[in-house]
Specification:
binds FE2/S2 (inorganic) cluster; 14 helices; 12% strand; alpha/beta; 9 strands; globular; 3-stranded parallel beta sheet; TIM Barrel; binds S-adenosylmethionine
Length: 347
């Protein structure tokens, strides 16, 4: 009868909250295999065997926020802080363009040094130099006007995970100055401005219940984003969640498959965190329905400092190595990295 629910999801892209809970709680290895077969079929219908790449540039690890799970939270005094200069960021893009990247993702903490005019200046320089590339920003919560200015400067896309839909759960993961509703409102602002938006959450975050996950699925359905980034929560030794267990590969893959069936045309990355909890996590993510990978383009010297969680992979590699490594990994499971902006078909 749970297979029937998977069929229903595949055929109608919609489930009730109760059905989501049953489908998540009732999962078995056999059911997961059935889900992944369906998810791959849907993925191949829309995206073939192509895998899109995004060059991730982690340009600052200063952050004004204090999310309890995050290794670069403000109150982690052991974090070694850095920010890249504009020239360093442009160098990353130059290297990335030669390696075949047509999307650059500028991600960082909420760093007051990077004011909106400074960010807009960097975005517009990237836009001028590489007009055939998409520019994705991932720099947290801002006012509508700030998002608009950055969009006008040439940013196309914005990644902002909603983290968890439920306000009470949100408060267990963040200080009181932050709220789930404010973050969701940022996503609606970004969408109304015209950004292609990405949202998502951590699988197995502390205190997360199946009901929370069901709410997350319903929120994703309502928001209908262009991209959904989910990855396992992984503890960081300098946070209060240091002793919490990491999210599992098994549940992350299962949710990837479910998201593929719910939003057939969405962009779905197999994340670095997934590759961190299992050596073949990203390959398995692709086989569960994912279609994006995000190799690191940050300068090697700073990578070990952008430590959101422990044992993060790729911190010692050159950008070219990282790109080639991922290209080979995708080939090993029958998929191909392509040179393409990789715009979402989910419009
Ligand atoms: N400051 C921006 C923001 O708030 O969206 C972007 C950077 S933030 C570090 C990027 C994402 O990292 C968060 O949305 C969160 O889901 C993820 N993250 C942070 N700590 C993590 C952890 N311990 N395990 C897994 N993912 C984590
Ligand atoms: Fe970065 Fe393999 S993906 S080294």
């Amino acid at each position: 009868d749970l297979k029937e629910l998977i069929n229903k999801l595949r055929d109608t892209q919609t489930l009730s909250k109760n059905e989501w809970i049953r489908l998540i709680d009732g999962r078995t290895p056999e059911l997961a295999d059935y889900l992944f077969e369906n998810a791959r079929e849907v993925r191949i219908t829309h995206y073939g065997h192509n895998v899109y790449v995004r060059g991730l540039i982690e340009f600052t690890n200063y952050c004004r926020n204090d999310c309890y799970y995050c290794g670069i939270r403000k109150s982690n005094l052991n974090a070694h802080r850095y920010r890249l200069t504009k020239e360093e960021i442009l160098d990353c893009c130059r290297i990335g363009y030669e390696l075949g990247f047509r999307t650059f993702v500028l991600q960082g903490g909420e760093d007051g040094w990077f004011t909106v005019p400074r960010l807009a200046d960097i975005v517009s320089d990237i836009h001028k130099n590489w007009p055939d590339c998409a520019i994705t920003l991932s720099v947290g919560e801002m006012e509508h006007d700030a998002y608009q200015t950055l969009f006008d400067a040439g940013a196309d896309r914005y990644l902002l995970r909603h983290e968890t839909y439920d306000e009470a759960h949100y408060r267990m993961l963040h200080p009181a100055s932050l709220s789930a509703l404010h973050r969701q409102n940022c996503l609606w602002d970004l969408k109304s401005i015209g950004y292609q938006i990405g949202t998502g959450f951590m699988v197995g975050a502390p205190f997360q219940t199946t009901e929370n996950l069901a709410d997350d699925m319903l929120f994703l359905k309502e928001l209908n984003p262009h991209m959904v980034g989910i990855g396992p929560f992984i503890p960081h030794h300098d946070t209060q969640f240091a002793e919490e267990p990491a999210g599992t590969l098994e549940l992350t893959l299962y949710l990837l498959g479910l998201i593929r069936l719910m939003l057939p045309k969405v962009l779905l990355p197999a994340t670095t965190a997934l590759g961190t909890i299992s050596p073949t996590g990203r390959e398995q993510g692709i086989l569960a329905g994912a279609n994006v990978v995000m190799p690191n383009l940050s300068p090697t010297e700073v990578r070990k400092d952008y430590l959101l969680y422990d044992n993060k992979i790729c911190t010692g590699d050159e950008s070219a190595q990282c790109k080639n490594c991922l290209a080979q990994r995708m080939e090993s499971v029958g998929y191909h990295v392509v040179v393409d902006r990789g715009d979402s078909l989910n419009k």
